[in-house]
Amino acid sequence: MQNLGIQILFQGNNFLRLWVGLWVSLKLAVISMFFSICLGMLFGMVMTSTNKLVRFFCRLYLETVRIMPQLVLLFLVYFGAAKHLNVNLSGGTAAVLVFTFWGTAEMGDLVRSALESIPVHQYQSGYALGFGKIGVYRHIIIPQTIRRLLPSMMNLLTRMVKTTSLVVLIGVIEVVKVGKQIIDASRYTVPDAALWVYGVIFIMYFAVCYPFSRAAALLDKKLRD
Amino acid sequence: MNVEEILKTEQLNKSYENGLKVLNDITFSLKKGEVVVIIGPSGCGKSTFLRCLNMLEPVDSGTIRFKDRVIDRANKDVYELRQKIGMVFQSYDLFPHLTILDNILLAPVKVQKRERSEVAKEAEDLLKRVGLSDKTNVYPRQLSGGQKQRVAIVRALMMHPEILLLDEITAALDPEMVREVLQVVLELAREGMTMVIVTHEMEFARAVADRVLFMDQGVVVEEGSPEEFFNSPQTERAKQFLNMFHYEAR
Amino acid sequence: MKKGLLSALLGITMAAGLLAGCSQAKAPAGAPAQEASPSAKARSLDEIKKAGTIRIGVFSDKNPFGYVDSNGKIQGYDVYFGKRIAKDLFGSEDKVEFVYVEAASRVEYLKSAKVDVILANFTVTNERKEQVDFALPYMKVALGVVSPDKALISDVSQLKDKTLIVVKGTTAETYFSQNHPEIKLLKFDEYQEAYDALADGRGDAFSTDNTEVLAWAIQNKGFTVGIESIGNLDTIAPAVQKGNTELLEWLNGEIKSLAGEQFFHQDYKETLEPVYGDEIDPENLVVEGGQV
Q1: Which of residues 131-190 of A touch C (CB under 8 A)?
Q2: C219-256: per-residue pLDDT in tens?
Q3: What residue numbers bound the domain in which A116 lies?
Q4: Helical segments of chain C, H only
Q5: pLDDT of B179 strictly over 70
Q6: Residue A79 belongs to a domain with what CATH number?
Q7: Number of domains making up chain A
Q8: Which pLDDT value is given to residue A225?
Q9: Does residue B56 sit at the A interface (CB-CB below 8 Å)?
């Protein structure tokens, strides 16, 4: 009897397990993104500093993060912290730490370039109207920066969602791992399960990420008009 | 004749990092209600001078006095003083993320903490006067250059400044839009607004100015009433400069 | 080389990492203070008993040794043993927390004391013995040779001057090229390519771990594993952190005492036989009492 691959999805609670796995991925990405945005805003402002030493350390941080594979960072924080510092972090906490560490650097660089792309006249008009430095940033520069940042922020978030598939290596079971478990559990009975399971994961990713990028596009359009 | 002196500079000096002297011992005074036009070739220091008056740029030495107060850029009251000295720039410097009304209301509400409904009414009156009452809820990018500059003037006026600094506000405009902006400035002058204007529009300068300052290489070369200056300039440099605006028929 | 890089970068990363997210960095209470050492101190047998549960690292996608069934429950040969450990330690087979590990990080899980025992199809090698302590084996693997029923290879001498398919980098490749130069080898990068080649008749037989070919032959009619065990015998054993002697000795005692009831034969019947069928001899895989 021919066993159809798609049946595997409806065995037991496989389908639900996939959604739970996706929820784990999303949760990690969204929490990390939240911290990355907050810290990245500050880091981006620090990056525009004219102090050469400050700029050097910002650059060093950014380049370090870019050179180091996220996997190495995950291992360092998850296993390294336990071995060397006796800090036993859960896989989820370690993942949020690493993704925030990475996201803050990337976000900071985006914020820096957005800040630098705002003409100097915008600052001067603000000062000429009697605003102080904080007021100029709060009412004039940051609102404009956020608008410019929206597309690249969305991009970073989706990259983060995709990168969450690495966290399985520190024991966090997310959607791709659940998929592998389902495929493997039935590898003797349903050899072509992989195609179906990965296909469904693809659609699930799309179903979740598409509204995000759609919302960002709409918001961007609304802000432009 | 007892006219109040409102702004005064003494021996302002400023050099760029490369050593180029951009302001050289400028001593200047402005009376209440007076309109002073500063003209001169590009790079003569006139825009820098204007920005120093508003403390957007520091000076190397010299003092700036607003009424009886000496202005120090490092001092906190600089933010308060800037509200009394409004400024409009050459480039369209409206805030692109805010509607016209919000552009105008931002500083009065956030800086001066005035009631939004009260300032909104004032803003609408002013917009009506400059012929833009139908534009309150649109965004800057939907306006022409001339319309944007009129809004920028309204935005500066909303702070109730005692002096208005206009830095080549028509230099980036298409010729057909220059007039609509300058007309607004002429009206302000008629109403007694104290202004320091940097411009390349000679006809306008002649019409609006109480006094003309001619600057070259960081120095005030010549000073006088518009009639004196435009009809019989005293210095060779001023004559040469004015000749550039003059074309002989063949 | 890689380890040096990791240690060198650790300082920077941790400092910056903690800085970047210090709000969430909560050091768990009760982590005993101790001097810096290359590994975190594993829980002793007493500490595990006091805690009331044991943490065992298993695979979650290596059917039939450790896998998650369609109801989300962990199953398999290793898991079956893990539950028995919990039962004999605490009186209940639910007193075990299974941690899902990956092949590449099994050693790290022990070194960082995130698990007490690894039961993840962990093959005993000399290299690994330097990093972890292995208890007595509970399973053994060798190579198997699968071939078509029409021209079944049941002895290695039949392979002379014939073509044997192997996957690059496996023990099968090493074994046959060193010990049987008379056999022609056809090498592939991927298992799937190798199986396809066998099905197409590009080779006379295919060899890799016997557990792998046995399971494949069950699902593919017309093919049989004619040689179920050949080559060097590898053993599979539980592993604990290096120096965790009490726990190691307890595990050894457990494995010895389970021989009396032939526990691993029972384990085989429950978890492996459904996959391998009843035609093969369990003695080729199962080890009782640590006696290979």
Answers
A1: 168-171, 173, 177-178, 180-188
A2: 788 999 999 888 888 999 999 999 999 999 999 999 99
A3: 2-224
A4: 2-20, 45-51, 77-90, 106-111, 126-129, 171-179, 191-200, 210-219, 245-258, 263-267, 273-276
A5: yes
A6: 1.10.3720.10
A7: 1
A8: 56
A9: yes
